[in-house]
Structure prediction request, 352 residues.
Amino acid sequence: MRVRVGIVGASGYTGAELVRLVLGHPELELGYLGAREKAGQRLGEALPGTEGIAGLSDRRLEAFEPGAASELRGRIDVAFTALPHAASARAGAALLEAGIRVVDLSADFRLADAAVYEEWYGEHPAKALLAQAVYGLPELHRAELRGARLIAAPGCYPTSSILPLAPLLSAKLIEPSGIVIDSKSGVSGAGRSAAANTHFPETSEGMRAYKVAGTHRHLPEIEQELSRAAKTPITVVFTPHLAPFSRGILTTAYARARAGTTAEQCRDAAEGQYREGLVTVLRDGRLPDTLWVRGSARAHVAYALDERAGVVVAMCAIDNLAKGASAQAIQALNVCLGHPDALGLPQVGTFP
Prediction:
């Protein structure tokens, strides 16, 4: 029997990606489609790409109220919550209480320390649940994900930052201090709501840094997971950029190499860490390109050593809506349910 899935926040970019991926998954079926502003609309109206698909485009987006979560108990087994922070926590708490497994795509359950969350996001509506939430990066938290009831899908920038650096910190190939992370993201990372700074004329032919000098909300998530890998507190410099394309993230990180470290050792450490999962370690001088992973659930990582400066350059490309959000959420659910990571997920990007 297929697992019945609900998507709370189905009309946004990550929700739309979840709809697409669930439809192609052999063990999942759509049991509920929830929305806020677009509640009552046909799915074909909210997501025109679904128009004309029998049994799908004419389904209505339903309003979701946390107080009525128990009414979904007989309709769905798992809920993906893709709402803004705080709203996702309230929805997730109600769904869990109703006996429904939750995979949350907001930041609400990613940070283990409630005080850190509240420093960056404000009061947490369900802080008692933080202790049971599992960080949904399968390549690093596989054992904890098995059977988890509450999964916190990682952020897009953190995914692209953690994947290339965690194996190097675990293997002690780089120094834990002085790490600099530079990330460039497509504008879909800002969400579907209209805003002046993501308006086409202001993004199509330029690129800009934003939320610099330790002010981006993904920073504590990156540092939490890198600290776990290094088994020591990590502080990084993180600079995000808005780039003139719709999907994808390219992250380039710089870390001081420890004596004797080679690029080959870095690649070997990553391959050892990622024997299971959806990460490709590039060799033979090939460097990641966002176009190669567009629409794919995979991440591409690569390494180079600047011998003159004594710096390891660690790179990663992902699709921010796929491995950076919805595909990774389904990958985490796959692991949770005992399925192969890649079940139902696209592994080849849409090229060109």
Q: What stands out?
A: The chain has ten helices and 14 strands.
